[in-house]
Sequence to fold (131 residues):
Amino acid sequence: MEGPKNGPNQMGQSSVEDRPPVLTEDQFYRALASKYRRRVLYCLFDMKSTTVEELATILCGWEATTTGTMQLPADRNKIHIALMHSHLAQLANAGLIEYDFQSDSVRLKPLHPKVKDVIRQSVKTGQQDES
Fold:
């Protein structure tokens, strides 16, 4: 018989949802090394899934808001290309998102609450540093 989804099962063992994902420290920190990757994850907390196009637009607007500069279509295109060729692949390889380049879709994988807390805190700290 399976134990409850959260908390120990009948044998006192923790369920999968109680344990952080198995990521090497290097893999985890590399995935979160970029503010754009942290922001992608932060956006996906609320959206759950979206497209690369929409993420590029959101990140471009976020950049304009935090820097106080006007972002041009070329800036958005640069972010879009970086998402497609670098950031999303790194997040997918770390097991944090699912990225389907053919359908242009990005979806957050289930994350342990401690991982979400680290991401939220790093985004908030980054915003304070930029202001």
